[in-house]
Amino acid sequence: MFWADKIAGEMQGHQVINDSKTPSGRVHIGSVRGVIIHDIIYRALKRANQPVKFIYGVDDYDALDTIPKYLDSTKFSPYLGFPLCNVPSPDDLASDYANYFMDEFLEVFQYLGVTPEVYHVRDLYRKGRLNPFIDTFLQNAHLVRSVYKEVSKADRPDNWYPFQVICEQCGKIATTVVTNYNGEEVFYHCKPDGNDWVNGCGYTGWVSPFNGNGKLPWKLEWVAKWGLFGVSVELAGKDHSQKGGSRDVANALCRNILKKKPPFHSPYEFILVNGTKMSSSKGIGSSAKEIADLLPPELMRFLLLRTQPRSGINFSLNYDAIVRLFRDYDGLIEKYHTWEATRTDGDLPEELLPLLYAQTGATVETYQPFDFSTLISLEQIPHLQTHAEIVKRSKPLNEVDWKVLTGRIAVARKWLAGYADEDEKLVLQLDAIPEQVKEISSIQVEYLKKLTGTLEFIPSWDSETIQATLFSTSKQMDIDQAAAFKAVYLSFLGKDRGPRCGALLSYLDQDFVIARLNAVIHLRISEVI
Ligand SMILES: [Zn+2]
Asked: What DSSP assignment string belongs to 471-521?
């Protein structure tokens, strides 16, 4: 059973799914995993006709605790320790710092077809919606302290209260400590030796903890949101899910103080970003926005959902990874075509569920697939019109085919410009024989001779026929297949390997291919003699 349907199958009655994000900087692709996991569970519940709501919190009352290196630290360092929504925006467009980064992330949501009801934590505080929870936790500060001690072995002094005031004098929230509560006001101190990254102003005073004057520590804020919205499903990354970790603490607070059952939980693994390519000198990184700028939404969803949450995703956009991603997706499209043509009932086979859940809409949009590695090759052949070449060689294209094809060509271009390493590029050497042909051995020369003779009389100059000829010739000659293909790649690319060979040659002129192979054979024979 697909992982999300399994989770959905265990649930009864109305469900409220919650997820959230602190908008402290550019959002990494890893944060999209949680979003997609929750969205898929939401869709699985809907598919099972279960009543369900999906909400998403912007944790914008959290403090600015570091200044991302892409921002001007002189401008932002005075705001360290401020609630994110009280820090100015890096540009003139957004209302504040939190919205600046969240707007970018919400654009990615929209792109991916993820449509939760978004709420801002600043509004919950300022409109007083969390007042009852603040009061409960402050009244039960002794219970909060004992949960911290029992579950996470964290010892708090007897006069520690679970609340942080926004200092009335300096505006910081990260430096204040509350040491008393009289039922209406808290007593706080903005500590000059606040913590190891920011210092307070020394102010002390009594103030109401309600209506936005401060916030709960985040584990309690989490629990307050569960209570306020009746959250029943919320998964968390494995960093929060260790034994005695923040989720355990939150669950215990929920049970012991709110007397409620905590939401369904299952930890999910991280996304590991592979190697240096993701943060290359070209300035292309691994922010959610950047990946959304490269991949079509259904491919980005597919990438994140096909691995079940408890397994890590090793994220990479090198040649092999991106070609495999498109190939796997297109493979499911082919299978979907077959299923549609021969279907007997309405149930989608399990292996096609990732395809269904990858869609931004409710139905699978099918099209005539085009091999992505071939598109990457075509884009690198000078003077060649990729569109025209594809049209010449495929069945007539409908409107959707065109749309998909145009999108894929754009991906290939962006990938070549921003992500491809030099050794992943094709560099077709049309004007002169690559000097690397000197690596071609005499047995490989014999292969090329035989191949050239056959290619001259090939019945059709298309990818499949050429590929079949390359294979059958290597068999007849009893030459290792890898060595055979290497001789061809060296002759055109000056490299050991390349894209699907039959496809590559099919897009070149037949006379040119034969002339080049003959020239290579001639050169190698003359050099050996
Ligand atoms: Zn202060």
From this structure: HHHHHHHT--HHHHHHHHHHHHTSSS--S-HHHHHHTS-HHHHHHHHHHHH
